[in-house]
Amino acid sequence: MQQRKIDKFSTSLSSLYYYYYYYYYYYYYLGEDNEHRMFRRLSTSALAAAAVRFYTPSEGLKKLYTSDFDKSEFPLSIVPSDSALFAKFLYKAAEPNNGFDAILKDFQTIAAATSSLPIFWERTAVVEDVAEFKKLSEPTFFTLVWMQKNGMLDLIQEVSEIYETYVNAKMKRIVAKIYVAPGKEGDVGEAKRVAQELHKEAKELAGHTLVFKTVVDRSIVTGFAVELAGQYVNRAEGHKTHAPVADEADYTTIPVPRLPKTVWEDNIETEVLSRYLDSLAEYDAEEAKYGV
User: Fold this and answer.
1) How many other C-beta atoms are found inside a 10 Å radius of the C-beta of residue 21?
2) How far is CA 137 from the centre of its chain?
3) pLDDT for the residue 241
4) For the purposes of burial, counting CB atoms within 10 Å of the CB of 192, is it exposed (0-12), middle (13-18) or buried (19 or more)?
5) Which of the two residues, 132 and 19, has the higher pLDDT score?
6) What is the pLDDT of residues 244-262, one digit of tens each?
7) Which of 61, 126, 132, 245 would staple 57 via disulfide (CB 3.0–4.6 Å)?
């Protein structure tokens, strides 16, 4: 009798477990905006564990994180993605105090720090153990931990670009990208003048502040290239190409090779094999002459 009661109790627990499982599945995974729910719920649990182990985020960031910040108003519309979600969080975290430029500087600090980190640092390094990351603003550090706990730290470059796009739209800035050779980052005076001319000629950019962003392009040897609002001016010279020796050879004049006659041992096995190989060679010769 006691065993039956235990079995009955276990069965009821199992039924309750399966009922909860299916309710959880249909509500969170098959409801409205199911993709967003899946991502946010995964992130919430991961970040909660991170907060317990490493640090306690401020109440303001906690409140923002648990809110529907991604459904708020933004300067422009960008296709939803994981990178866009992180960028939106950073934008909303900086919005109350107008601290947009501080986070932009954080991304520069991250780029400088990662150049000294080992390859695939996104998978091996721990954000909390990187000394340079401890100097970042709290929203940026919070977001890095969030991204790492979801295995998405490799999206940091995309997050930086989307966030910068939001800020530039908010501040009415237009970015001119100047591409130069390695070591020529300081020699951009002429390139800036070209960018300023493009800015003046574009009437749709009236009222926008021109800012410059220097990008090192290893394919450039001398000169520069400027990109502004879809316009591209190229005054750069790359490496001169040298035709390899193989490209200079004329393979149409190669003489037909002379194939030596194979000497076989005098027995029945080699005679059969010899005739078979001779027939294959004859077939190959006819195929080369007349085609397939």
Assistant:
1) 10
2) 23
3) 56
4) middle
5) 132
6) 655 666 667 777 778 787 7
7) 61
DSSP letter for each residue of the chain: -HHHHHHHHHHHHHHHHHHHHHHHHHHHHSSTTHHHHHHHHHHHHHHHHHHHHT----HHHHHHHHTTGGGS--SS-----HHHHHHHHHHHHHTTTT-HHHHHHHHHHHHHHHTTSPTTHHHH--GGG-GGGGGS-HHHHHHHHHHHHTT-GGGHHHHHHHHHHHHHHHHTEEEEEEEE-TT-TT--HHHHHHHHHHHHH-GGGTTPEEEEEEEE-TTEEEEEEEEETTEEEEEEEEPPP---HHHHS-GGGPPPPPPPPPPPPSSHHHHHHHHHHHHHHHHHHHHHHH--
pTM: 0.60
Residue 177, strand partner residues: 213, 227
